[in-house]
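ok so dumb question maybe but i'm new to this and my supervisor (M.) told me to 'just get the structure for ABC transporter ATP-binding protein' and walked off. so i did the thing. is this what she meant?? sequence i used:
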Amino acid sequence: MNATELTVESLTLTAGAHHLVRDVSLTARPGEVIGLVGPNGSGKSSLLRAVYRVLRPDTGQVRVDGADAWSLPVRRLARTLAAVVQESGADIDLTVREVVAMGRTPHKRLLDGDTEEDARLIDAALDAVDATGLSDRSFDRLSGGERQRVLIARALAQQPSLLVLDEPTNHLDIRHQLEVLGILRRLPATVLVALHDLNLAAYYCDRLYVLHDGELIVSGPPAEVLTPRLLAEVYGVAAEVVIHPRTGAPQVTFLPGKPTGVAMAAPDQSCT
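this is what came out, is it supposed to look like this??
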């Protein structure tokens, strides 16, 4: 399966008189891992909801391989795009394996049962997130971290060429954070992921888009985006940023106290 190109063009989302996202453009080229970062309330989740068709844009478009995502048939889009959202669906009264098997639904007709290939893909997805041992457990009895891994496995079983994830490392311990992001890095798919941990974003993402108050501030490779000035402007924190000698990725160290002498820069809408 070929990876998908995602293009967000001048997207604006509102809730009443409040702008959730204002005139944001973004491109994820086939096979890239693109990170959305920014403080709470910056518009990351709202932007993702427009991509996976929960929030309809007021203006602008979401394009998947050039086609308007909001005009595509639901089944066709589901064969291309999988989403892992923050809401865990903890009241799902199914076993873990049954939840992961739901990822195969877009590839079936109404009354089709699971094939040997479906079973293989479900097993592989469970194994990828270290959840094989949870297979027969009830989903609603799992911890938050276990549920998150199972929902990621469901998305993997769907075999998407575009994967959209909203804070997928929430509730995961360090080992599983690294394993999950490593899986995303290796997938033959395009990935758009919102992350809070800037060091994880710097290591695993090809490019970052920084949102603040619903507007795009800057985008580019992590080493260009994650600067002390940017962190002061957007997050209001003092920080040092160095290139890690072993990973080659920017490493952010936050410092006590408030940054001084930094004014908010104008949003940069020239996304590449």
